């Protein structure tokens, strides 16, 4: 059995694909969300996968011994880890943004078949509960030690593009180093990356230099020019910027504060990152998290 913890844009899509492929899937949610999904099922709209409507079993606790996919946002991770540990899972694949969460995952789940990777997809669940996928499918990247585990094999069999790449830290930084600058810059200007460049090109360059330095110190050699080339062009808006427009901080702590904290750990000054994070919070009228 595969337990998918969380049913947002990533978890809901993965659960629907696995069910469609014939896998035994349980979606694990908080009581309110569990009742909604039990009543309405999971509905997907995608150019790649078509329109799907599945009704997988729903639970509020992880079934014992199952294979677990963790797809909640980082700020919801601590709430689900004790329940996952209590279920003694046979395998865990955590698909969150960022890098600093991995230590908490391994501390709570010390078994040998526990790994952190990431999912790449642009998807969102609307007020009606429909998950719309705007990219050409979803891709999942896992560290090399998880290459032959059951979870990646099941995902690949369900039509997910699965890649294997190096150590866990290298995998996590592969996404984090491109996501964090994109998310922070678009949130800072409440617009796309070209708008950020027009506002302050020197600040953009300094921020990329700082992110590259932290990534290199923490496990993935990176240069600012590479990060610059990874930034999306006109019109692209990050999910963090969208969350801020809705009045929630979303993953600002994971994508901003965590980078600053990592910089301090390695003795790397991050004035541009600190300014951008501070000004984002000032713009949305929120105080820094402590």
Automatic annotation (TrEMBL):
GO terms for cellular component: cytoplasm. Residues 2-137 form the Ketopantoate reductase N-terminal domain. It holds the Pfam family ApbA_C. Signal peptide: none annotated. InterPro entries: 6-PGluconate_DH-like_C_sf, 6PGD_dom2, KPA_reductase, KPR-Related, KPR_N, NAD(P)-bd_dom_sf. It comes from the Bacteria. SUPFAM superfamilies: 6-phosphogluconate dehydrogenase C-terminal domain-like, NAD(P)-binding Rossmann-fold domains. Residues 171-282 form the Ketopantoate reductase C-terminal domain. Coiled coil: none annotated. PANTHER family: 2-DEHYDROPANTOATE 2-REDUCTASE, PROBABLE 2-DEHYDROPANTOATE 2-REDUCTASE. This is Ketopantoate reductase. It comes from Raineyella antarctica.
């Amino acid at each position: 059995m595969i337990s998918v913890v969380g049913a947002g844009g990533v978890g809901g899509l993965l659960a629907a694909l696995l069910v469609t492929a014939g896998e035994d899937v349980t979606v694990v949610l908080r009581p309110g969300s569990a009742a909604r999904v039990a009543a309405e099922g999971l509905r997907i709209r995608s150019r790649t996968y078509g329109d799907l409507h599945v009704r997988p079993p729903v639970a509020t606790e992880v079934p014992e011994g199952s294979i677990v996919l963790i797809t909640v946002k980082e700020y919801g991770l601590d709430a689900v880890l004790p329940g996952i540990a209590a279920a003694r899972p046979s395998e865990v694949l955590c698909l969150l943004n960022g890098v600093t969460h991995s230590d908490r995952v391994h501390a709570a789940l010390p078994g040998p078949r526990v790994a952190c990777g990431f999912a790449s997809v642009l998807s969102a669940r609307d007020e009606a509960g429909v998950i719309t996928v705007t990219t050409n499918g979803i891709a999942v990247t896992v560290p090399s030690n998880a290459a032959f585990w059951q979870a990646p094999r099941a995902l690949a069999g369900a039509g997910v593009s699965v890649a294997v790449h190096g150590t866990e830290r290298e995998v996590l930084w592969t996404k984090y180093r491109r996501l964090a600058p994109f998310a922070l810059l678009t949130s800072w200007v409440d617009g796309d990356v070209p708008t950020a460049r027009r506002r302050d090109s020197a600040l953009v360059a300094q921020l990329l230099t700082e992110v590259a330095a932290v990534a290199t110190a923490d496990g993935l050699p990176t240069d600012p020019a590479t990060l610059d080339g990874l930034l999306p062009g006109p019109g692209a808006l990050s999910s963090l910027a969208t969350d801020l427009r809705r009045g929630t901080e979303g993953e600002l702590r994971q994508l901003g504060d965590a980078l600053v904290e990592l910089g301090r750990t390695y003795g790397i000054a991050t004035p541009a990152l600190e300014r951008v994070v501070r000004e984002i919070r000032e713009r949305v009228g929120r105080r820094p998290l402590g």
